[in-house]
């Protein structure tokens, strides 16, 4: 048979499988030979070979036989890296394989981000345990390790901690840490400077690859494609990959399905929002560091508890608050008291006040009075609905920054004077009706939680 036969079959497969599948899976196959019913291809990675065999094998055999060839079985052999790349860019010379961490430069690793300085609590214990396991080295058990969670919850800290630990235990390993954005820029630069071979070789020669904030490649098609191939090559080579993102793989916007499914293949763990105990633990550990820096400063009892209670957004904000507090207290030469804390951090404290929405208020109030949300918002004027409606309006006015007309709009398009009347009525009842006063107190607390 000739290469032309394979080319014709490729065209048929493109029509049958679609352009995306074709470019991801069929195009990378390099026909090698057909011998005694066995058709052999060179493939860039084992993964591609396995995938094609499982998903498209029958179709390839079918079309080949339609063309008059006799194919019983497919075989895939992984090309040596030099060959793969040389085939893609015939004029470029193979780049030497980097041999040490210094030669592969990613982003610098922060030596302060270690396991020792990472405070473990319920919300992050699983992520911490998984990171520790990877840092302990040994055979790759889950690949990739995918860490995700909200802003400032310690993903980058854990990745750096792994890198720091690996550097200590196995200095010979090539550990590459970079953000997904840097990955993209390197890829674009390599394309522009016609250095794709160097790029591929660099990324395929690492022992541990860490990519931070991978959600960034969502919607960037060529970068995703390259990331996918890098990923597969490393997994095939039993190299550890560690990925972080702000959300689970399945929820990353505009990320190709095949990448989502690859990212889910290993261990996916999330860092939950911090709880009070974890925040307090983090503050205590940071204070120890500051105590060495500012030996003359005292911190009054209750301050850390107050901060852990009031700043619940993320650890970065918590750290920033503490830094500011110590700097301020050392400038004025005073003990860090609750009063000084409130003065110094008034903006941070205000910003992290929990924002309650009118919708949340409506939901909580309707649950509390056991009525349907639609009845509370709707036009019915019977007292069973009207009183809870007024309570919700009152809470919306006092707990949110919405104006009366805005609140009216959220209550089925009512006029602002109706809202004003409702708010006034509850203000009066609060004083005369203890049941209403209790209801308000209960609801307010539930909404502030
Ligand atoms: N459990 C923890 N113990 C100690 N420090 C922590 C902990 N969690 C977070 N931090 C600190 O909080 C700061 C923010 O953490 P980090 O940069 O790792 O967050 P991230 O999850 O990567 O956030 P982003 O999504 O913004 O990249 C860092 O200074 C980090 O050291």
Topology:
Blueprint: H1 3-17, H2 19-26, E1 30-35, E2 38-43, H3 46-66, E3 73-78, H4 81-88, H5 125-135, E4 145-149, H6 155-169, E5 175-179, H7 180-192, H8 196-204, E6 208-212, H9 221-236, E7 240-245, H10 257-263, E8 267-271, H11 276-293, H12 303-310, H13 315-332, H14 338-344, H15 346-351, H16 358-368, H17 373-377, H18 383-399, H19 404-410, H20 416-432, H21 434-448
Parallel strand pairs: 2-3, 4-7, 4-8, 5-6, 6-7
Antiparallel strand pairs: 1-2
Helix pairs in contact: 1-2, 1-3, 4-8, 5-6, 7-8, 11-12, 11-13, 16-18, 16-21, 18-20, 19-20, 20-21
Bound molecules: adenosine-5'-triphosphate.
What does this structure look like?
It comes from Yoonia maritima. Oligomerizes as a right-handed, spiral filament on DNA at oriC. With 449 residues, this protein is α/β, with parallel strands linked by helices. The chain has four domains: 3-87, DnaA, N-terminal domain (GMP Synthetase, Chain A, domain 3), CATH 3.30.300; 122-271, 3-Layer(aba) Sandwich (Rossmann fold); 276-351, Orthogonal Bundle (Helicase, Ruva Protein, domain 3); 358-448, DnaA protein, C-terminal DNA-binding domain (Chromosomal Replication Initiator Protein Dnaa, Chain: A), CATH 1.10.1750.10. 56% of the residues lie in helices and 10% in strands. The protein has 21 helices and eight strands. It has helices at 3-17, 19-26, 46-66, 81-88, 125-135, 155-169, 180-192, 196-204, 221-236, 257-263, 276-293, 303-310, 315-332, 338-344, 346-351, 358-368, 373-377, 383-399, 404-410, 416-432, 434-448, and strands at 30-35, 38-43, 73-78, 145-149, 175-179, 208-212, 240-245, 267-271. Helix 9 links the parallel strand 6 (208-212) and strand 7 (240-245). The longest helix is centred in the first third of the chain and has 21 residues, at 46-66. The model is unreliable at 81-104 (pLDDT under 50). The structure holds adenosine-5'-triphosphate (ATP). Adenosine-5'-triphosphate (ATP) binds at residues 113, 117-119, 124, 149, 151-157, 246, 282, 315-316, 319.
């Amino acid at each position: 048979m000739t290469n032309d036969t394979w080319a014709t079959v490729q065209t048929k497969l493109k029509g049958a499988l679609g352009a995306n599948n074709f470019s991801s899976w069929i195009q990378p196959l390099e026909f090698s030979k057909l011998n005694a019913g066995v058709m052999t291809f060179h493939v860039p990675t084992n993964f591609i070979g396995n995938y094609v065999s499982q998903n498209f094998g029958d179709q390839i055999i079918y079309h080949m036989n339609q063309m008059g060839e006799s194919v019983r079985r497919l075989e895939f052999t992984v090309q040596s890296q030099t060959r793969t790349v040389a085939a893609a860019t015939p004029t470029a010379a193979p780049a030497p394989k980097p041999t040490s961490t210094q030669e592969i430069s990613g982003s610098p690793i922060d030596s302060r981000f270690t396991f020792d300085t990472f405070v473990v609590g319920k919300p992050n214990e699983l992520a911490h345990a998984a990171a520790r396991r990877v840092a302990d080295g040994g055979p790759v058990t889950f690949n990739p390790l995918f860490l995700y969670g909200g802003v400032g919850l310690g993903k980058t800290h854990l990745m750096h901690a792994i890198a720091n630990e690996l550097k200590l235990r196995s200095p010979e390993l090539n550990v590459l840490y970079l953000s997904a954005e840097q990955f993209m820029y390197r890829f674009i630069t390599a394309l522009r400077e016609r250095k794709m071979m160097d790029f591929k070789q660099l990324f395929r020669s690492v022992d541990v690859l860490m990519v931070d904030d991978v959600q960034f490649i969502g919607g960037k098609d060529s970068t995703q494609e390259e990331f996918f191939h890098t990923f597969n090559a490393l997994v095939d080579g039993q190299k550890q990959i560690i990925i972080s993102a702000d959300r689970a793989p399945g929820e990353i916007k505009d990320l190709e399905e095949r990448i989502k499914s690859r990212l889910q293949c290993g261990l996916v763990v999330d860092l939950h929002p911090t709880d009070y105990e974890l925040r307090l633990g983090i503050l205590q550990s940071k204070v120890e560091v500051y105590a060495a820096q500012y030996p003359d400063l005292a911190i009054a009892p209750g301050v850390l508890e107050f901060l852990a209670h009031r700043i619940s957004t993320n650890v970065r904000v918590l750290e920033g608050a503490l830094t500011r507090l110590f700097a301020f207290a050392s400038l004025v030469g005073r003990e860090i008291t609750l009063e000084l804390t409130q003065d110094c951090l008034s903006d941070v404290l205000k910003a992290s006040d929990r924002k309650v929405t009118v919708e949340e208020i409506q939901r909580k109030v309707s649950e509390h009075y056991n009525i349907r949300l639609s009845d509370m918002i709707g036009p019915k004027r019977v007292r069973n609905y009207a009183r809870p409606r007024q309570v919700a309006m009152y809470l919306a006015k006092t707990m949110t920054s919405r104006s009366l007309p805005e609140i009216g709009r959220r209550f089925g398009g009512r006029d602002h004077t109706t809202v004003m009347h409702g708010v006034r009525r509850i203000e009066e009842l609060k004083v005369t009706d203890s049941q209403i006063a209790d209801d308000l107190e209960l609801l307010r607390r539930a909404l502030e939680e």
